[in-house]
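Minutes, methods subgroup
Present: GH (chair), OT, SY

1. OT presented the first of two proteins processed in the latest run. Sequence and structure tokens recorded below as shown on screen.
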Amino acid sequence: MKKRLLTILLALTAITAGAQTVKCVEPDAQAYIDLLTLAGYKAYKFEIPESAVGHMARFVIKEFKDGKEVSLDESDFGSMINSFSFDVGSSTIIVGFLPEKEGVPMRTVAIKWKGSMDLAGPFVYKYLITDCIDFMTGDKREPYSYYNTVENKEEIEYKEKTFLPLCLLGSAYNVPDQGYKFCGDFKDLCESSPHYYVIGIVIF
């Protein structure tokens, strides 16, 4: 009897020692980044030459409709940011976009130039997609806007007093027999999106 109990205890010990478990661990920074991305937050980081530190700079936002640049006088965004200059205190720039709110035709961009300045402002856009079909019901959707963002991953040649494009906020474009899409790189979307903004800098 004692031998049988000892055998059972040894067997239970072996099972326990070899068991796989699930345990809670402290989330790292990447976990929060993933959650923020899912919630619609986007952040893009750029490095400029150290030689630019100490110069003056200006953020410039250009609006384009149907492939043509919109003048500041006619732009919904206007010159709210474009006329603001500041000292360059760092070689690191962060451009971030806050989530779009349903039913609100506005998107907010937050710009941080480490050691120099922080800036936030809304983009107002009016482009509506009106002829998409709801794949669940087959009925036409109510008019809605679909905008997304992409960063410029090309190496941008640094020149003083020259517009350096960093990010794009643009509307989806219609592909015959495929519907509306927002895909491709920075250059593709500049050629395809019917309405977009390019966020960049000028250093002088």
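2. SY then presented the second protein from the same run.
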Amino acid sequence: MENVIKKSVSALIMKSVYIENMHFKRRALVVSYENTDMDVQRTVERLEDGSFKVTLTMTIEDKQEDFVLGVTVCGIFTLEDETDETIKKAIIAKNTVAILFPYLRSQITLLTSQPDMKPIVLPAVNINSLLENMEDSVRV
């Protein structure tokens, strides 16, 4: 019997993940998230060693300017055994966002879990749909 996990190992390897930037400015005692603008940006940069730095940034602010929140999460990825450039770009563009998005969601919830605040808990999202709606900069 062969090891199912061993046969299913991804060619995409995350070497590290870290929070690059986090800011939260709250101007009111009571904050409502009803009228908020949310923006997600992604950049992909090929590093000198052949790995990829993927940056995912979310900004949330309300229209009354009671709060502004921003979180940037970065991941360093390598891609092994993929020689076709089209497949490589698709894996880097989609799979890295799918891997990083839960880290972004978690940090936003942690950052807004303060006394007298209702935490922001982002819903699970369809990554393909998210990518279609994002403006991004990809340099692969």
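Chair's summary of item 2: The CA atoms of residues 24 and 69 lie 4 Å apart.
Next meeting: continue with the remaining queue.
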